[in-house]
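Helix-turn-helix domain-containing protein structure dump, as promised
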Amino acid sequence: MFNTQALADYIKEHRGLKGFGQLYLATKLNISQNCYSKMEQGYSKISFERLFEIAKLLDFDPIEALLVGRDTPHVIKIIITQN
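structure tokens r here:
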């Protein structure tokens, strides 16, 4: 299982790096700003489909995002991508 709060923090950090507001992302995802905020705070679960949408908008690797907080994310990522 992945760390929901670590994933939420990862998304929030990348949104900040892009200079996007929550409302901008919420609009792109066709959800309310409140719903988006709950995802970023870790109060709402993020589906794989939603994660891939967010990753595309914020230009990050969704698999790496899932591995945040793990001991060996880069090793696991290499194994996943090679198979």
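Helices lie at 4-18, 22-29, 33-40, 48-58, 62-66, 73-82.
lmk if u need the other ones
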